[in-house]
Amino acid sequence: MLDKIGIAKRIAKEVQDGYYVNLGIGIPTLVANYVRDDIEVEFQSENGVLGMGPFPFDGEEDADIINAGKQTITTLPGASFFDSAMSFAMIRGQHVDLTILGAMEVSENGDIANWKIPGKMVKGMGGAMDLVASAENIIVAMMHTNKRGESKILKQCSLPLTGVGCVKKIVTNLAVLEVTDKGFKLLERAPGVSVEEIENATEGTLIIEGDIPEMSL
Amino acid sequence: MINKKVNSVNDATKGISDNMTFMLGGFGLSGIPENAIAALVKSNIKGLTCISNNAGVDDFGLGLLLHQKQIKKMVSSYVGENDEFERQMLSGELDVELIPQGTLAERCRAAQAGFPAIFTPAGYGTEVAEGKETREFDGKMYVLEHAFKADFAFVKAWKGDAAGNLVFKGTARNFNPCMAGAAKITVAEVEELVPVGELDPNQIHIPGIFVQRIFQGEKYEKRIEQRTVRTKE
């Protein structure tokens, strides 16, 4: 079974040379730490920066240079700043190659829910609805089940949706799944996790074809 | 040169009154019009509708207006980090319209650019699109979203001049350029008001035509919400 860092490491392998990538808050933010260093990738943050670098050194933080999680950041050579309309022009206009974000629920037709739990949590969708409605290539980083052990990989989402039919790939603590016309196709197992364990943790239709390889990190 | 300079935040906010709709720039606490917000708090006008990506934190930014119950309605994309906001929303005292961040930016920009509405794919199939017109273009579904209508836009820039030209710094730019010129009156506050002619015309982010009043803010706290650092090895 993977921890959050393991999920980030596995997703990092999906990032290819020349990609512009938008990372959501939480596990997705960690992905930046594990991207191969022999490829060129630029990270976009929807509050208006392309070419994000690591956190600043202590004492060098600047209130005017933050990411979408409101964390202080730095920029790398070649970086640029821009306004919110232009930022979402990059996103909506499909100039960003890969979007990685978290989810509370995903359904087998690719719907995603990650912005609201009625009566409990109402923080807002931020840029998530724009990102999922527009991106060609969306990878969801999430835990396979909730704290009560219930599946978050569902036939149908129960929470208010963020987007419909948009998720293509999911990396969880248990597996890598691809969303297909017929359901979730199991691509890889997490180290030490059996196909049966994944089946038991998946409420949606799970397609298992042949031997399922264990993922390498 | 048409002079937009006013001498104080009080002159800059002249004409504000109860039940108006305001746009306020900023992302989190970065690039918020701190001095205009302080003046709004002092004015104690009420029944406000505020269009702003976030709602500040409990003791800073728009949180200060919420604390005094001056805001009737918030139009935002993300409102975490504010307990008083959550309390007022759950008790029904505060009306909240949550909309996608890109839609928020584009509804400002549409108002600025003279478009009555725009079509966006964001929110299609979700509760955000409920009751709204949808249309298919080239096999994909889009939602019709209207331009905002606001009485004042309060924006904050790094540098500006009396002509109203603005230059922003870093990610403090965010919604500010989209809101400039998107309301009946745009009030720009800057950290530094420089002599006209000093800003390079090639480097202006927002031309003065979008700004009606400009002033240099008395002070800027520029609070950091999430201070994340690494240590030197």
**What is the C-alpha radius of gyration of chain B, as a whole number of Å?**
18 Å
Which regions of chain B have little confidence, pLDDT < 50, spanning 5+ residues?
none
SSE class of chain B = alpha/beta
Structural classification of chain A: alpha/beta
Q: In one word, what is the shape of chain B?
A: globular
Count of individual helical segments of chain A:
5
Largest interface chains and counts:
A-B, 52 and 59 residues
Q: Please trace the helix and strand order of chain A, writing H or E for each element.
A: HEHEEEHEEEEEHEEEEEHE
Percent of sequence in beta strands of chain B: 15-25%
Structure description:
- The complex is a heterodimer of chains A (about 220) and B (about 230).
- Chain A has about 220 residues and is of the alpha/beta class.
- Chain A contains five helices and 15 strands.
- The longest helix of chain A has 9 residues, at about 5-10.
- Chain B is of the alpha/beta class.
- Chain B has helices at about 10, 35-45, 65, 85-90, 100-115, 175-180, and strands at about 20-25, 50, 70-75, 95-100, 115-120, 135, 140-145, 150-160, 165, 185-195, 215.
- In chain B, the strands form two sheets. In chain B, strands 1, 2, 3, 4, 8, 9, 10 and 11 form an eight-stranded mixed β-sheet that branches. In chain B, strands 5-7-6 form a three-stranded antiparallel β-sheet, with helices on one face.
- At the A-B interface, α3 and α4 of A face α5 and α6 of B.
Name its key features:
heterodimer; A: three-stranded mixed sheet; B: 233 residues; alpha/beta; eight-stranded mixed sheet; three-stranded antiparallel sheet; 11 strands; globular
Layout of SSEs?
The complex is a heterodimer of chains A (217) and B (233).
Chain A: H1 4-12, E1 20-23, H2 27-31, E2 42-45, E3 49-52, E4 75-81, H3 84-92, E5 98-102, E6 105-107, E7 112-113, E8 116-117, E9 121-122, H4 128-134, E10 138-141, E11 153-154, E12 169-171, E13 175-180, E14 183-189, H5 195-200, E15 206-207
Parallel strand pairs in A: 1-2, 1-5, 5-10, 6-11, 10-12, 14-15
Antiparallel strand pairs in A: 2-3, 3-4, 6-7, 8-9, 12-13, 13-14
Chain B: H1 9-12, E1 21-24, H2 34-43, E2 48-51, H3 63-67, E3 71-76, H4 83-90, E4 95-98, H5 101-113, E5 117-120, E6 134-137, E7 140-146, E8 152-160, E9 166-167, H6 176-179, E10 185-193, E11 213-216
Parallel strand pairs in B: 1-2, 1-8, 2-3, 3-4, 8-10, 10-11
Antiparallel strand pairs in B: 5-7, 6-7, 8-9
